[in-house]
Amino acid sequence: QEVLTPETVGPALLEDVRDVEVIDVHTHLLPPSHGKLMLWGIDELLTYHYLVSEYFMVAPAEITHELFFAKTKLEQSDLVWQGLFVERSPISEACQGVITTLQRLGLERQVADRDLRGIRAWFAQQSLDEHVENIFRLAKVRYAVMTNIPYVEEEAQHWQPEAKPVTSRLRKALRIDNFLKGDWASICEALKKEGLDETMDGAKEYLRKWAGIYKPEYMMASTPHDWRYPEPAAAASMKPLVKAYAGFGASELLEEAVVPVCEELSLPIALKLGAWRGMSPDLDPCCGGDGVASADVASLQALCAKFPKVKFLVTVLSRANQHELTVVCQKTRNLHLYGCWWYCNNPSIIEELTKMRTEMLGTAYTAQHSDCRVLEQLLYKWDHSRQIIGEALVPYYQRLLRKGWRLTREELRRDLQLLLGGSYEAFMAR
Ligand code: RAT
Ligand code: ZN
User: Fold this and answer.
1) Per-residue CA distances from 146 to 46, 149, 217 (Å)
2) What is the CA radius of gyration of the chain?
3) 175: closest CA among 271, 266, 34?
4) Ligand 1 contact via 369 beta carbon (within 6 Å)
5) pLDDT digits (tens, 9 = 90+) for 312-336
């Protein structure tokens, strides 16, 4: 039994945080059976929406958004490489991610030579199924949860009439943003396609049907940036006044369809608060057009309090919301906090959030999720986060040990496992 000291706990922690097998509770990865929807390889890495957004800040004026998005993936990737990796040093987080990924794949020489062709040649040699397994093994990710959207036709067709078996590395999640948005028109379209009634019962049947196909870990939605729960009285009372109004609003859909079906099937609801969708529509073709807004954390608290039998998972996009959210999480038994999302998935913010969360929640939260869209991003997103989370945690253990607390290496590993998947599984199983 290795007993740690204030001197040995730091190196031990940094080693163990690199080794621990994590659970990735939210990604956009899809299995190889989804064909071109499964993103992998250098050209997908270079055209990740974080990088395309960055590229437009330095792109020559004649490269309009229209022109760029009309190009092939290969041409787009050439432009991003030239603009962000050749003409300047790739110091941003998303750029560094590409370099970490290539280094982890043993492509240092090609990177040093700025040899994009050589990099492409390496990827072209990979056989996909092996490559998937290899990446999960290298990233030390036990499994990742996908984002499965039933009303996106080209995606849904891969599951019908029932889900095909996929690698045990990927689990499913039923994504239902249109319900939380109160987008009754788009829900009706989906109901029509499935031959279901355009009623609240039809909507419930639709959720049940897709939950039956996916057997998801949870239902997930990102809420509109101005989401309020309960809906302000003014908005609700307007509805009967609108003569042609025949649909349901966000709160009704949540209370009368989503929550009852989740209760019935014992499914948690994972929420993502604070994305300001379509802030910069020019970038929407690459998924990069969204901004961030401070969300109403009190609405989340009200929702959890109103439905104590439903489990909620939550992450927020705005740094400004993080402190109040952490307090709400500490007080709310049916709520679990996960990850540093998107604009918060930057080293300086991960460090700050990990410290604050540890100080208030101990190990009862999930320190990170990757949100990967491209397979190989698992390498960099997890490498970077492991390092930062590890460094952020060291002082807490040193302080504890200086007080005479006896800590074994095994106990340290247990804690790291809790923070990177164990607490999630415990919450889900409770
Ligand atoms: O981080 C992202 O890739 C975003 O585009 C969103 O998809 C976000 O993660 C989400 O799940 O809504
Ligand atoms: Zn996401």
Assistant:
1) 21, 10, 9
2) 22
3) 271
4) no
5) 999 999 999 999 999 999 999 999 9
Averages of pLDDT over runs of 10 residues in the chain (430 residues) are: 97 98 98 96 98 98 98 98 98 98 98 98 97 98 98 93 85 98 96 96 98 97 96 71 72 97 98 97 96 98 98 98 98 98 98 98 98 98 98 98 98 98 98
User: Relative to the CA of 177, which ligand 1 atom is closest?
Assistant: 12
Please tell me whether the overall predicted TM-score, pTM, comes out greater than 0.90 for this model.
yes
- Residue 346 per-residue DSSP state: S
Say what the pLDDT of residue 162 is. Answer: 78
177 lines ligand 1 (CB under 6 A): no
Q: Supply the residue whose CA is at minimum distance from atom 9 of ligand 1.
A: 371
For residue 342, the ligand closest to its alpha carbon is: 1
CB distance 381 to ligand 1 below 6 Å:
no
**Which atom belonging to ligand 1 lies closest to the Cα atom of 147?**
11
Nearest CA to ligand 1 atom 10: 222
Residue 366's closest CA among 267, 266, 299, 270?
270
Q: Starting from the CA of residue 275, give the closest ligand.
A: 1
The closest ligand to the CA of 177 turns out to be 1
Q: What Å distances lie between residue 168 and 128, 141, 201, CA to CA? A: 15, 11, 33
